[in-house]
Specification:
The chain is 15% helix and 19% strand. By secondary structure, it is an alpha+beta fold.
Length: 81
Amino acid sequence: MTKTNTYAIIDINDITSVDFSQVEQNSADTVRKSLDGLKFVLKWNVEPSFIADGTIVPLQTLTHEECLALMSTAEWSDPEE
């Protein structure tokens, strides 16, 4: 069985609570941020402890397809690029 990635939109104020050893991103510098800088995306295969224990509560949890659709919106992508 293939593990599927889970994507979560997180409030930027929670970025210091992320244990980057439990997610696909390496650091706060490598996460994808919304254009306004208020949200970022995390990706994982196994739910991180900081999500499971409620330290961080995602604003949204998405599949890969849902995340791709969201990333193409004006909130996450500059239409001029």
